[in-house]
Protein backbone atom coordinates (compact mmCIF):
# COMPACT_ATOMS: atom_id res chain seq x y z
CA UNK A 1 0.00 0.00 0.00
CA UNK A 2 2.80 2.41 0.87
CA UNK A 3 4.49 1.61 -2.43
CA UNK A 4 1.27 2.35 -4.30
CA UNK A 5 0.82 5.63 -2.45
CA UNK A 6 4.40 6.62 -3.24
CA UNK A 7 3.86 5.90 -6.94
CA UNK A 8 0.68 7.93 -6.96
CA UNK A 9 2.41 10.84 -5.24
CA UNK A 10 5.25 10.69 -7.74
CA UNK A 11 2.81 10.72 -10.63
CA UNK A 12 0.88 13.65 -9.22
CA UNK A 13 4.07 15.60 -8.59
CA UNK A 14 5.28 14.85 -12.10
CA UNK A 15 2.01 16.01 -13.63
CA UNK A 16 2.04 19.21 -11.61
CA UNK A 17 5.62 19.80 -12.74
CA UNK A 18 4.57 19.07 -16.31
CA UNK A 19 1.77 21.63 -16.08
CA UNK A 20 4.12 24.24 -14.62
CA UNK A 21 6.69 23.60 -17.35
CA UNK A 22 3.92 23.72 -19.98
CA UNK A 23 2.73 27.06 -18.66
CA UNK A 24 6.32 28.35 -18.73
CA UNK A 25 6.88 27.27 -22.34
CA UNK A 26 3.42 28.53 -23.34
CA UNK A 27 4.26 31.97 -21.99
CA UNK A 28 7.69 31.89 -23.62
CA UNK A 29 6.19 30.63 -26.88
CA UNK A 30 3.67 33.43 -26.77
CA UNK A 31 6.48 35.95 -26.41
CA UNK A 32 8.36 34.50 -29.38
CA UNK A 33 5.24 34.33 -31.55
CA UNK A 34 4.25 37.85 -30.56
CA UNK A 35 7.67 39.19 -31.53
CA UNK A 36 7.58 37.30 -34.81
CA UNK A 37 4.07 38.52 -35.59
CA UNK A 38 4.98 42.08 -34.67
CA UNK A 39 8.06 41.96 -36.91
CA UNK A 40 5.97 40.55 -39.74
CA UNK A 41 3.37 43.27 -39.29
CA UNK A 42 6.06 45.97 -39.24
CA UNK A 43 7.61 44.57 -42.42
CA UNK A 44 4.20 44.69 -44.08
CA UNK A 45 3.66 48.26 -42.90
CA UNK A 46 7.13 49.24 -44.16
CA UNK A 47 6.33 47.83 -47.59
CA UNK A 48 2.99 49.64 -47.52
CA UNK A 49 4.77 52.85 -46.48
CA UNK A 50 7.19 52.55 -49.40
CA UNK A 51 4.23 52.00 -51.72
CA UNK A 52 2.35 55.02 -50.34
CA UNK A 53 5.49 57.14 -50.68
CA UNK A 54 5.89 56.18 -54.33
CA UNK A 55 2.19 56.89 -54.94
CA UNK A 56 2.56 60.37 -53.45
CA UNK A 57 5.71 61.17 -55.45
CA UNK A 58 4.23 59.88 -58.70
CA UNK A 59 0.93 61.69 -58.14
CA UNK A 60 2.74 64.94 -57.42
CA UNK A 61 4.80 64.55 -60.61
CA UNK A 62 1.59 63.97 -62.53
CA UNK A 63 0.12 67.22 -61.22
CA UNK A 64 3.24 69.13 -62.15
CA UNK A 65 3.14 67.52 -65.59
CA UNK A 66 -0.48 68.65 -65.98
CA UNK A 67 0.63 72.18 -65.10
CA UNK A 68 3.39 71.92 -67.74
CA UNK A 69 0.86 70.85 -70.37
CA UNK A 70 -1.40 73.75 -69.42
CA UNK A 71 1.51 76.19 -69.68
CA UNK A 72 2.45 74.86 -73.13
CA UNK A 73 -1.15 74.95 -74.32
CA UNK A 74 -1.83 78.38 -72.91
CA UNK A 75 1.19 80.26 -74.34
CA UNK A 76 1.08 82.60 -71.32
CA UNK A 77 2.66 86.04 -71.14
CA UNK A 78 2.37 88.58 -68.38
CA UNK A 79 1.50 91.19 -70.91
CA UNK A 80 -1.62 89.28 -71.99
CA UNK A 81 -4.91 90.41 -70.55
CA UNK A 82 -6.30 87.61 -68.30
CA UNK A 83 -9.72 88.02 -69.92
CA UNK A 84 -8.20 87.34 -73.35
CA UNK A 85 -6.36 84.27 -72.07
CA UNK A 86 -9.49 83.01 -70.30
CA UNK A 87 -11.48 83.42 -73.49
CA UNK A 88 -8.99 81.55 -75.68
CA UNK A 89 -8.13 78.85 -73.11
CA UNK A 90 -11.44 78.26 -71.34
CA UNK A 91 -11.57 74.62 -72.44
CA UNK A 92 -7.96 73.91 -71.39
CA UNK A 93 -8.47 75.48 -67.97
CA UNK A 94 -11.74 73.63 -67.39
CA UNK A 95 -10.16 70.29 -68.32
CA UNK A 96 -7.13 71.06 -66.14
CA UNK A 97 -9.11 71.94 -62.99
CA UNK A 98 -11.62 69.13 -63.48
CA UNK A 99 -8.79 66.56 -63.67
CA UNK A 100 -7.56 67.62 -60.20
CA UNK A 101 -10.69 66.29 -58.43
CA UNK A 102 -11.23 69.36 -56.20
CA UNK A 103 -7.57 69.44 -55.10
CA UNK A 104 -7.17 73.02 -56.34
CA UNK A 105 -9.52 75.94 -56.99
CA UNK A 106 -7.00 78.69 -57.83
CA UNK A 107 -4.29 79.32 -60.42
CA UNK A 108 -2.26 82.47 -60.62
CA UNK A 109 0.54 84.12 -62.55
CA UNK A 110 3.38 86.11 -60.93
CA UNK A 111 6.13 88.27 -62.36
CA UNK A 112 9.80 87.18 -62.13
CA UNK A 113 10.15 89.22 -58.91
CA UNK A 114 7.14 87.44 -57.34
CA UNK A 115 4.56 90.20 -57.89
CA UNK A 116 1.12 88.67 -58.58
CA UNK A 117 -0.27 89.73 -61.97
CA UNK A 118 -3.59 87.90 -62.28
CA UNK A 119 -5.41 84.82 -61.01
CA UNK A 120 -8.16 82.40 -61.96
CA UNK A 121 -10.77 80.79 -59.69
CA UNK A 122 -12.39 77.38 -60.32
CA UNK A 123 -16.01 76.70 -59.33
CA UNK A 124 -16.22 72.88 -59.16
CA UNK A 125 -20.03 72.85 -58.88
CA UNK A 126 -20.60 74.98 -61.96
CA UNK A 127 -17.51 73.62 -63.76
CA UNK A 128 -16.57 77.21 -64.54
CA UNK A 129 -13.31 79.22 -64.50
CA UNK A 130 -13.40 82.95 -63.70
CA UNK A 131 -10.90 85.75 -63.07
CA UNK A 132 -10.16 86.13 -59.36
CA UNK A 133 -9.23 89.11 -57.23
CA UNK A 134 -5.44 89.38 -56.79
CA UNK A 135 -5.91 89.87 -53.04
CA UNK A 136 -7.54 86.45 -52.73
CA UNK A 137 -4.30 84.71 -53.70
CA UNK A 138 -1.90 86.68 -51.54
CA UNK A 139 -2.13 84.16 -48.63
CA UNK A 140 -0.84 81.46 -51.00
CA UNK A 141 2.18 83.67 -51.76
CA UNK A 142 2.82 85.09 -48.30
CA UNK A 143 2.72 81.69 -46.53
CA UNK A 144 4.90 79.94 -49.11
CA UNK A 145 8.33 80.49 -47.59
CA UNK A 146 9.96 78.60 -50.46
CA UNK A 147 8.86 81.13 -53.08
CA UNK A 148 12.20 82.97 -52.90
CA UNK A 149 14.01 79.69 -53.50
CA UNK A 150 11.82 79.21 -56.57
CA UNK A 151 12.96 82.57 -57.96
CA UNK A 152 16.58 81.47 -57.46
CA UNK A 153 16.00 77.99 -58.93
CA UNK A 154 13.19 78.08 -61.55
CA UNK A 155 13.49 74.38 -62.37
CA UNK A 156 11.97 73.30 -59.02
CA UNK A 157 8.78 71.24 -59.34
CA UNK A 158 7.11 72.54 -56.19
CA UNK A 159 7.82 74.36 -52.96
CA UNK A 160 7.58 73.21 -49.37
CA UNK A 161 4.26 72.59 -47.65
CA UNK A 162 2.66 75.43 -45.69
CA UNK A 163 -0.52 76.13 -43.72
CA UNK A 164 -3.38 78.59 -44.07
CA UNK A 165 -5.97 78.47 -41.27
CA UNK A 166 -4.82 74.97 -40.26
CA UNK A 167 -5.16 73.73 -43.82
CA UNK A 168 -2.08 72.37 -45.59
CA UNK A 169 -1.08 73.40 -49.10
CA UNK A 170 1.80 73.02 -51.49
CA UNK A 171 2.56 75.26 -54.48
CA UNK A 172 3.51 73.86 -57.88
CA UNK A 173 5.59 76.10 -60.13
CA UNK A 174 6.07 76.39 -63.87
CA UNK A 175 8.26 79.09 -65.33
CA UNK A 176 7.03 80.85 -68.49
CA UNK A 177 9.76 82.00 -70.87
CA UNK A 178 9.74 84.48 -73.72
CA UNK A 179 10.80 83.71 -77.27
CA UNK A 180 14.33 84.83 -76.39
CA UNK A 181 14.49 82.37 -73.46
CA UNK A 182 14.27 84.85 -70.59
CA UNK A 183 11.81 84.21 -67.76
CA UNK A 184 8.53 86.04 -68.35
CA UNK A 185 6.87 84.90 -65.15
CA UNK A 186 5.70 81.91 -63.13
CA UNK A 187 2.47 79.95 -63.22
CA UNK A 188 1.64 78.80 -59.66
CA UNK A 189 -0.89 76.17 -58.61
CA UNK A 190 -1.70 75.83 -54.87
CA UNK A 191 -2.72 72.22 -54.12
CA UNK A 192 -4.99 71.41 -51.17
CA UNK A 193 -3.26 68.48 -49.44
CA UNK A 194 -6.38 67.53 -47.49
CA UNK A 195 -8.25 66.92 -50.77
CA UNK A 196 -5.21 65.09 -52.16
CA UNK A 197 -5.21 62.81 -49.08
CA UNK A 198 -8.91 62.02 -49.51
CA UNK A 199 -8.42 61.19 -53.18
CA UNK A 200 -5.43 58.89 -52.75
CA UNK A 201 -4.96 57.79 -49.14
CA UNK A 202 -8.30 58.12 -47.31
CA UNK A 203 -9.44 54.68 -48.46
CA UNK A 204 -6.11 52.96 -47.81
CA UNK A 205 -7.11 49.73 -46.08
CA UNK A 206 -5.34 47.47 -43.61
CA UNK A 207 -6.52 44.16 -42.24
CA UNK A 208 -6.83 45.87 -38.87
CA UNK A 209 -7.29 49.36 -37.49
CA UNK A 210 -4.74 51.89 -38.77
CA UNK A 211 -4.15 54.69 -41.24
CA UNK A 212 -1.36 56.55 -43.06
CA UNK A 213 -0.28 60.07 -42.13
CA UNK A 214 2.30 62.52 -43.45
CA UNK A 215 4.39 65.05 -41.50
CA UNK A 216 6.93 67.66 -42.54
CA UNK A 217 10.48 68.08 -41.27
CA UNK A 218 9.21 70.04 -38.24
CA UNK A 219 7.03 67.07 -37.21
CA UNK A 220 3.87 69.00 -38.05
CA UNK A 221 1.00 66.96 -39.46
CA UNK A 222 0.20 67.93 -43.07
CA UNK A 223 -2.03 64.98 -44.07
CA UNK A 224 -4.20 62.99 -41.67
CA UNK A 225 -7.63 61.27 -41.76
CA UNK A 226 -8.73 63.58 -38.94
CA UNK A 227 -8.96 67.13 -40.29
CA UNK A 228 -8.41 68.81 -36.91
CA UNK A 229 -5.04 67.04 -36.58
CA UNK A 230 -3.68 68.85 -39.66
CA UNK A 231 -1.34 71.68 -38.72
CA UNK A 232 -0.60 70.30 -35.26
CA UNK A 233 2.85 69.48 -33.95
CA UNK A 234 2.62 65.83 -32.88
CA UNK A 235 3.67 66.68 -29.32
CA UNK A 236 3.48 70.36 -28.32
CA UNK A 237 0.15 71.18 -29.99
CA UNK A 238 -1.43 67.92 -28.84
CA UNK A 239 -0.30 68.63 -25.29
CA UNK A 240 -2.37 71.81 -25.42
CA UNK A 241 -5.46 69.88 -26.53
CA UNK A 242 -4.96 66.88 -24.23
CA UNK A 243 -2.68 67.95 -21.36
CA UNK A 244 -3.26 64.78 -19.32
CA UNK A 245 -2.01 62.36 -21.96
CA UNK A 246 1.34 60.58 -21.82
CA UNK A 247 3.62 61.75 -24.70
CA UNK A 248 6.87 60.07 -23.68
CA UNK A 249 6.66 57.44 -26.43
CA UNK A 250 5.68 60.05 -29.02
CA UNK A 251 8.83 61.98 -28.12
CA UNK A 252 10.84 58.80 -28.65
CA UNK A 253 9.10 58.29 -31.97
CA UNK A 254 9.83 61.85 -33.07
CA UNK A 255 13.52 61.53 -32.19
CA UNK A 256 13.82 58.20 -33.98
CA UNK A 257 12.13 59.48 -37.15
CA UNK A 258 14.28 62.61 -37.27
CA UNK A 259 17.44 60.52 -37.12
CA UNK A 260 16.54 57.73 -39.57
CA UNK A 261 15.53 57.77 -43.23
CA UNK A 262 13.14 54.85 -42.69
CA UNK A 263 12.34 52.35 -39.99
CA UNK A 264 9.78 50.54 -37.87
CA UNK A 265 9.00 50.52 -34.16
CA UNK A 266 6.37 49.94 -31.49
CA UNK A 267 5.16 52.75 -29.24
CA UNK A 268 2.27 53.92 -27.08
CA UNK A 269 -0.03 56.58 -28.49
CA UNK A 270 -3.72 57.36 -29.01
CA UNK A 271 -6.30 56.95 -31.73
CA UNK A 272 -6.75 60.57 -32.74
CA UNK A 273 -9.75 59.76 -34.95
CA UNK A 274 -11.89 59.04 -31.86
CA UNK A 275 -13.98 61.68 -30.07
CA UNK A 276 -12.12 60.86 -26.88
CA UNK A 277 -8.75 59.40 -27.96
CA UNK A 278 -8.03 56.10 -26.23
CA UNK A 279 -4.54 54.94 -25.35
CA UNK A 280 -3.27 52.15 -27.55
CA UNK A 281 -0.09 50.29 -28.38
CA UNK A 282 0.79 50.83 -32.03
CA UNK A 283 3.15 49.28 -34.52
CA UNK A 284 4.47 51.74 -37.06
CA UNK A 285 6.66 52.01 -40.12
CA UNK A 286 7.87 55.20 -41.79
CA UNK A 287 9.94 56.52 -44.68
CA UNK A 288 11.17 60.00 -45.60
CA UNK A 289 10.43 61.15 -49.15
CA UNK A 290 11.30 64.24 -51.18
CA UNK A 291 8.62 65.96 -53.24
CA UNK A 292 10.20 69.00 -54.89
CA UNK A 293 11.46 71.18 -52.06
CA UNK A 294 9.24 69.37 -49.55
CA UNK A 295 10.77 66.73 -47.25
CA UNK A 296 8.04 64.58 -45.70
CA UNK A 297 7.87 61.51 -43.50
CA UNK A 298 5.21 59.01 -44.56
CA UNK A 299 4.07 56.83 -41.65
CA UNK A 300 1.49 54.06 -41.30
CA UNK A 301 0.29 53.10 -37.83
CA UNK A 302 -1.69 50.02 -36.83
CA UNK A 303 -3.21 48.64 -33.66
CA UNK A 304 -0.73 46.27 -32.03
CA UNK A 305 -3.26 44.46 -29.85
CA UNK A 306 -5.79 44.03 -32.63
CA UNK A 307 -3.17 42.35 -34.79
CA UNK A 308 -2.15 40.06 -31.90
CA UNK A 309 -5.64 39.37 -30.55
CA UNK A 310 -5.72 35.83 -31.88
CA UNK A 311 -2.41 34.98 -30.20
CA UNK A 312 -3.38 36.64 -26.93
CA UNK A 313 -6.73 34.83 -26.84
CA UNK A 314 -5.00 31.54 -27.63
CA UNK A 315 -2.55 31.96 -24.77
CA UNK A 316 -5.32 33.01 -22.38
CA UNK A 317 -7.40 29.95 -23.25
CA UNK A 318 -4.36 27.70 -23.09
CA UNK A 319 -3.34 29.09 -19.71
CA UNK A 320 -6.87 28.71 -18.41
CA UNK A 321 -6.98 25.09 -19.52
CA UNK A 322 -3.60 24.38 -17.98
CA UNK A 323 -4.63 25.98 -14.68
CA UNK A 324 -7.90 24.11 -14.77
CA UNK A 325 -6.03 20.89 -15.41
CA UNK A 326 -3.72 21.67 -12.53
CA UNK A 327 -6.70 22.19 -10.22
CA UNK A 328 -8.22 18.94 -11.40
CA UNK A 329 -5.00 17.12 -10.65
CA UNK A 330 -4.84 18.62 -7.16
CA UNK A 331 -8.43 17.63 -6.48
CA UNK A 332 -7.75 14.13 -7.76
CA UNK A 333 -4.70 13.85 -5.56
CA UNK A 334 -6.76 14.79 -2.50
CA UNK A 335 -9.41 12.32 -3.51
CA UNK A 336 -6.84 9.56 -3.99
CA UNK A 337 -5.17 10.43 -0.73
CA UNK A 338 -8.45 9.97 1.14
CA UNK A 339 -9.07 6.61 -0.45
CA UNK A 340 -5.50 5.37 -0.85
CA UNK A 341 -6.34 2.23 1.15
CA UNK A 342 -8.44 1.05 -1.73
CA UNK A 343 -5.77 -0.10 -4.13
CA UNK A 344 -8.21 -1.00 -6.87
CA UNK A 345 -9.66 2.48 -6.96
CA UNK A 346 -6.19 3.99 -6.94
CA UNK A 347 -5.13 1.82 -9.85
CA UNK A 348 -8.24 2.69 -11.79
CA UNK A 349 -7.69 6.37 -11.22
CA UNK A 350 -4.10 6.16 -12.43
CA UNK A 351 -5.23 4.26 -15.51
CA UNK A 352 -7.89 6.86 -16.28
CA UNK A 353 -5.49 9.74 -15.79
CA UNK A 354 -2.91 8.09 -18.04
CA UNK A 355 -5.55 7.38 -20.65
CA UNK A 356 -6.71 10.98 -20.52
CA UNK A 357 -3.16 12.14 -21.02
CA UNK A 358 -2.69 9.85 -24.00
CA UNK A 359 -5.98 10.98 -25.53
CA UNK A 360 -4.98 14.61 -25.26
CA UNK A 361 -1.62 13.92 -26.86
CA UNK A 362 -3.31 11.87 -29.57
CA UNK A 363 -5.89 14.58 -30.12
CA UNK A 364 -3.17 17.20 -30.45
CA UNK A 365 -1.29 15.02 -32.94
CA UNK A 366 -4.48 14.50 -34.92
CA UNK A 367 -5.06 18.24 -35.05
CA UNK A 368 -1.49 18.86 -36.24
CA UNK A 369 -1.79 16.10 -38.86
CA UNK A 370 -5.12 17.47 -40.05
CA UNK A 371 -3.68 20.98 -40.41
CA UNK A 372 -0.63 19.67 -42.28
CA UNK A 373 -2.79 17.59 -44.64
CA UNK A 374 -5.09 20.52 -45.23
CA UNK A 375 -2.20 22.81 -46.22
CA UNK A 376 -0.72 20.13 -48.50
CA UNK A 377 -4.11 19.67 -50.16
CA UNK A 378 -4.45 23.41 -50.76
CA UNK A 379 -0.97 23.49 -52.29
CA UNK A 380 -1.75 20.56 -54.61
CA UNK A 381 -5.04 22.10 -55.65
CA UNK A 382 -3.39 25.44 -56.35
CA UNK A 383 -0.77 23.90 -58.65
CA UNK A 384 -2.95 21.35 -60.43
CA UNK A 385 -6.46 22.73 -60.71
CA UNK A 386 -5.73 24.68 -63.90
CA UNK A 387 -4.35 21.60 -65.67
CA UNK A 388 -7.29 19.48 -64.50
CA UNK A 389 -9.70 22.17 -65.64
CA UNK A 390 -8.24 22.01 -69.17
CA UNK A 391 -8.65 18.22 -69.18
CA UNK A 392 -12.32 18.65 -68.27
CA UNK A 393 -13.03 21.48 -70.70
CA UNK A 394 -11.32 20.11 -73.82
CA UNK A 395 -13.85 17.29 -74.49
CA UNK A 396 -16.72 19.60 -73.54
CA UNK A 397 -15.61 22.18 -76.12
CA UNK A 398 -14.94 19.57 -78.81
CA UNK A 399 -18.18 17.65 -78.35
CA UNK A 400 -20.24 20.84 -78.09
CA UNK A 401 -18.80 22.08 -81.40
CA UNK A 402 -19.71 18.72 -83.02
CA UNK A 403 -23.24 18.95 -81.60
CA UNK A 404 -23.58 22.49 -82.96
CA UNK A 405 -22.76 21.23 -86.43
CA UNK A 406 -25.12 18.24 -86.07
CA UNK A 407 -28.08 20.26 -84.75
CA UNK A 408 -27.61 23.45 -86.75
CA UNK A 409 -31.25 23.26 -87.83
CA UNK A 410 -32.57 23.32 -84.25
CA UNK A 411 -32.44 27.00 -83.08
CA UNK A 412 -33.46 26.31 -79.48
CA UNK A 413 -30.93 23.51 -78.97
CA UNK A 414 -28.30 25.48 -80.88
CA UNK A 415 -28.69 28.45 -78.52
CA UNK A 416 -28.25 26.19 -75.49
CA UNK A 417 -25.21 24.52 -77.04
CA UNK A 418 -23.66 27.91 -77.83
CA UNK A 419 -24.13 28.94 -74.19
CA UNK A 420 -22.39 25.71 -73.07
CA UNK A 421 -19.59 26.29 -75.57
CA UNK A 422 -19.15 29.91 -74.48
CA UNK A 423 -19.00 28.98 -70.78
CA UNK A 424 -16.45 26.23 -71.47
CA UNK A 425 -14.33 28.61 -73.53
CA UNK A 426 -14.48 31.21 -70.75
CA UNK A 427 -13.25 28.55 -68.34
CA UNK A 428 -10.42 27.65 -70.71
CA UNK A 429 -9.53 31.32 -71.07
CA UNK A 430 -9.46 31.70 -67.29
CA UNK A 431 -7.15 28.70 -66.93
CA UNK A 432 -4.88 30.05 -69.67
CA UNK A 433 -4.68 33.44 -67.97
CA UNK A 434 -3.93 31.85 -64.60
CA UNK A 435 -1.18 29.72 -66.13
CA UNK A 436 0.26 32.67 -67.96
CA UNK A 437 0.49 34.87 -64.89
CA UNK A 438 1.51 32.21 -62.39
CA UNK A 439 3.96 30.09 -64.34
CA UNK A 440 7.30 31.07 -65.81
CA UNK A 441 7.46 29.99 -69.44
CA UNK A 442 10.32 29.95 -71.92
CA UNK A 443 10.19 32.87 -74.33
CA UNK A 444 10.57 31.83 -77.99
CA UNK A 445 10.20 34.74 -80.38
CA UNK A 446 10.23 34.37 -84.16
CA UNK A 447 10.06 36.71 -87.13
CA UNK A 448 6.70 36.35 -88.81
CA UNK A 449 4.52 38.11 -91.37
CA UNK A 450 2.31 40.35 -89.23
CA UNK A 451 -0.62 40.32 -91.68
CA UNK A 452 -0.59 36.53 -92.03
CA UNK A 453 -0.14 35.96 -88.29
CA UNK A 454 -3.08 38.25 -87.41
CA UNK A 455 -5.19 36.62 -90.12
CA UNK A 456 -4.51 33.11 -88.81
CA UNK A 457 -5.10 34.11 -85.17
CA UNK A 458 -8.35 35.93 -86.04
CA UNK A 459 -9.56 32.99 -88.11
CA UNK A 460 -8.93 30.57 -85.25
CA UNK A 461 -10.67 32.78 -82.71
CA UNK A 462 -13.53 33.55 -85.10
CA UNK A 463 -14.45 29.87 -85.08
CA UNK A 464 -15.39 29.94 -81.39
CA UNK A 465 -17.62 33.01 -81.28
CA UNK A 466 -21.34 32.60 -82.10
CA UNK A 467 -22.25 32.72 -85.81
CA UNK A 468 -24.83 35.41 -85.15
CA UNK A 469 -21.94 37.82 -84.56
CA UNK A 470 -20.77 39.49 -87.78
CA UNK A 471 -16.95 39.34 -87.75
CA UNK A 472 -15.48 41.42 -90.58
CA UNK A 473 -11.81 41.29 -91.54
CA UNK A 474 -9.94 44.00 -93.45
CA UNK A 475 -6.30 42.94 -93.46
CA UNK A 476 -3.82 44.58 -95.81
CA UNK A 477 -1.21 42.05 -96.89
CA UNK A 478 2.60 42.24 -97.12
CA UNK A 479 2.98 44.95 -94.51
CA UNK A 480 6.20 43.49 -93.11
CA UNK A 481 7.46 41.14 -90.41
CA UNK A 482 7.88 41.50 -86.66
CA UNK A 483 9.50 39.40 -83.94
CA UNK A 484 7.16 37.99 -81.32
CA UNK A 485 5.73 34.87 -79.71
CA UNK A 486 2.76 33.65 -81.71
CA UNK A 487 0.90 32.64 -78.55
CA UNK A 488 1.16 36.26 -77.32
CA UNK A 489 -0.47 37.56 -80.50
CA UNK A 490 -3.19 34.91 -80.31
CA UNK A 491 -3.83 35.68 -76.63
CA UNK A 492 -4.01 39.43 -77.36
CA UNK A 493 -6.47 39.04 -80.26
CA UNK A 494 -8.52 36.46 -78.37
CA UNK A 495 -9.00 38.76 -75.39
CA UNK A 496 -9.88 41.80 -77.54
CA UNK A 497 -12.38 39.90 -79.72
CA UNK A 498 -13.91 38.24 -76.65
CA UNK A 499 -14.21 41.67 -75.01
CA UNK A 500 -15.83 43.05 -78.17
CA UNK A 501 -18.26 40.12 -78.34
CA UNK A 502 -19.32 40.61 -74.71
CA UNK A 503 -19.71 44.36 -75.31
CA UNK A 504 -22.23 43.69 -78.11
CA UNK A 505 -24.30 41.03 -76.32
CA UNK A 506 -26.82 43.65 -75.18
CA UNK A 507 -27.48 44.93 -78.72
CA UNK A 508 -31.25 44.53 -78.88
CA UNK A 509 -32.08 46.61 -81.93
CA UNK A 510 -29.01 45.98 -84.09
CA UNK A 511 -26.81 43.10 -85.14
CA UNK A 512 -23.62 42.36 -83.24
CA UNK A 513 -20.66 43.49 -85.33
CA UNK A 514 -16.91 43.17 -84.78
CA UNK A 515 -14.42 44.73 -87.21
CA UNK A 516 -10.74 43.63 -87.41
CA UNK A 517 -8.57 45.98 -89.48
CA UNK A 518 -4.84 45.78 -90.23
CA UNK A 519 -3.24 48.75 -91.98
CA UNK A 520 -0.04 50.87 -91.95
CA UNK A 521 0.15 53.10 -88.89
CA UNK A 522 -0.65 56.79 -89.21
CA UNK A 523 2.15 59.34 -89.11
CA UNK A 524 0.79 60.74 -85.84
CA UNK A 525 1.09 57.40 -84.02
CA UNK A 526 4.48 56.75 -85.63
CA UNK A 527 5.82 60.07 -84.32
CA UNK A 528 4.48 59.31 -80.81
CA UNK A 529 6.18 55.90 -80.76
CA UNK A 530 9.53 57.28 -81.87
CA UNK A 531 9.31 60.13 -79.36
CA UNK A 532 8.40 57.88 -76.40
CA UNK A 533 10.90 55.10 -77.22
CA UNK A 534 14.28 56.10 -78.66
CA UNK A 535 14.97 52.46 -79.57
CA UNK A 536 12.33 52.76 -82.31
CA UNK A 537 13.96 55.75 -84.03
CA UNK A 538 15.67 53.43 -86.55
CA UNK A 539 12.40 51.67 -87.43
CA UNK A 540 10.78 53.08 -90.55
CA UNK A 541 7.53 51.09 -90.66
CA UNK A 542 4.69 50.49 -88.22
CA UNK A 543 1.43 48.54 -88.53
CA UNK A 544 -1.80 49.20 -86.63
CA UNK A 545 -4.24 46.45 -85.59
CA UNK A 546 -7.71 47.84 -84.84
CA UNK A 547 -10.47 45.75 -83.25
CA UNK A 548 -13.75 47.63 -82.94
CA UNK A 549 -17.34 46.81 -82.02
CA UNK A 550 -20.76 48.43 -82.17
CA UNK A 551 -21.56 47.85 -78.52
CA UNK A 552 -22.59 50.37 -75.89
CA UNK A 553 -19.11 51.85 -75.52
CA UNK A 554 -17.02 52.39 -72.39
CA UNK A 555 -17.85 55.27 -69.97
CA UNK A 556 -15.06 57.81 -69.67
CA UNK A 557 -14.71 57.26 -65.92
CA UNK A 558 -14.00 53.54 -66.49
CA UNK A 559 -11.55 53.84 -69.39
CA UNK A 560 -8.50 54.00 -67.12
CA UNK A 561 -9.71 51.24 -64.78
CA UNK A 562 -10.56 48.54 -67.34
CA UNK A 563 -6.89 47.63 -67.78
CA UNK A 564 -6.38 46.97 -64.05
CA UNK A 565 -6.12 43.29 -63.02
CA UNK A 566 -9.40 41.74 -61.80
CA UNK A 567 -11.42 44.88 -62.63
CA UNK A 568 -14.59 43.89 -64.48
CA UNK A 569 -18.13 45.18 -64.96
CA UNK A 570 -19.33 41.74 -65.97
CA UNK A 571 -20.86 39.04 -63.80
CA UNK A 572 -18.71 36.31 -62.23
CA UNK A 573 -19.79 33.94 -65.03
CA UNK A 574 -18.83 36.31 -67.84
CA UNK A 575 -15.49 37.79 -66.87
CA UNK A 576 -12.51 37.52 -64.55
CA UNK A 577 -11.01 40.98 -65.05
CA UNK A 578 -7.80 39.52 -66.51
CA UNK A 579 -8.51 39.85 -70.26
CA UNK A 580 -7.59 43.50 -70.85
CA UNK A 581 -4.88 43.26 -68.21
CA UNK A 582 -3.37 40.46 -70.29
CA UNK A 583 -3.55 42.73 -73.35
CA UNK A 584 -1.69 45.57 -71.61
CA UNK A 585 0.89 43.12 -70.25
CA UNK A 586 1.64 41.79 -73.74
CA UNK A 587 1.77 45.32 -75.17
CA UNK A 588 4.20 46.38 -72.41
CA UNK A 589 6.33 43.26 -72.98
CA UNK A 590 7.09 44.23 -76.59
CA UNK A 591 6.97 48.01 -76.22
CA UNK A 592 3.97 48.35 -78.53
CA UNK A 593 1.48 51.21 -78.48
CA UNK A 594 -2.11 50.77 -77.24
CA UNK A 595 -4.90 53.32 -77.72
CA UNK A 596 -8.53 53.06 -76.63
CA UNK A 597 -11.06 55.08 -78.63
CA UNK A 598 -14.54 54.85 -77.18
CA UNK A 599 -17.58 57.00 -76.68
CA UNK A 600 -20.47 55.85 -74.55
CA UNK A 601 -23.26 54.60 -76.79
CA UNK A 602 -21.07 54.41 -79.90
CA UNK A 603 -18.94 51.30 -79.45
CA UNK A 604 -15.22 50.96 -78.72
CA UNK A 605 -12.02 50.55 -80.73
CA UNK A 606 -8.70 49.18 -79.49
CA UNK A 607 -5.71 50.16 -81.67
CA UNK A 608 -2.38 48.39 -81.21
CA UNK A 609 0.64 49.54 -83.23
CA UNK A 610 3.59 47.21 -83.97
CA UNK A 611 7.04 48.07 -85.31
CA UNK A 612 7.71 45.97 -88.41
CA UNK A 613 10.55 45.22 -90.78
CA UNK A 614 9.51 46.22 -94.28
CA UNK A 615 9.27 43.37 -96.83
CA UNK A 616 12.17 43.23 -99.22
Automatic annotation (TrEMBL):
What reaction is this protein's catalytic activity?
A: ATP + protein L-histidine = ADP + protein N-phospho-L-histidine
Which Pfam families does the UniProt record give? Answer: HATPase_c, HisKA
Q: Which residues form the Histidine kinase domain?
A: 384-614
Q: Which positions are tagged coiled coil?
A: 342-373
- Please provide, alphabetically and separated by semicolons, the GO molecular function terms listed in this UniProt record: ATP binding; phosphorelay sensor kinase activity
**PANTHER family named in the record:** C4-DICARBOXYLATE TRANSPORT SENSOR PROTEIN DCTB, SENSOR HISTIDINE KINASE
- Protein name as it appears in the record: histidine kinase
- In its UniProt entry, the species of origin is given as Enterococcus quebecensis
Amino acid sequence: MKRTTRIVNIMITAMILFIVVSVFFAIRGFSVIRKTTTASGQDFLLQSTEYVGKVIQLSMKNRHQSLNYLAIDGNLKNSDAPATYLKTSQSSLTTFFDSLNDEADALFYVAPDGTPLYAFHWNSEKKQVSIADIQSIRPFINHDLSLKQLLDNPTTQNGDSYFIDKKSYINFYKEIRTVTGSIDGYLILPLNLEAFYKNFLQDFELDYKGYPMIKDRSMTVIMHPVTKQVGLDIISDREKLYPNFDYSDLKRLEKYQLNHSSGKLTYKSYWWDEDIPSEVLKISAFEWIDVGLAHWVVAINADYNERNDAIINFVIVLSFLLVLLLLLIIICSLFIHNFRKKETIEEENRRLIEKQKQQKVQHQLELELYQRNKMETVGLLTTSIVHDMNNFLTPIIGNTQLLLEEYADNPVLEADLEEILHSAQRGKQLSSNVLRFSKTQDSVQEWMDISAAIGVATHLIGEIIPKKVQLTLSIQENLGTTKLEEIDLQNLIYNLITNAYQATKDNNDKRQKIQVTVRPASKEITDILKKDNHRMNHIDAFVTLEISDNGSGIPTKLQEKIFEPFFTTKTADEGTGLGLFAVTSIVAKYGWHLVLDSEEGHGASFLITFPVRSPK
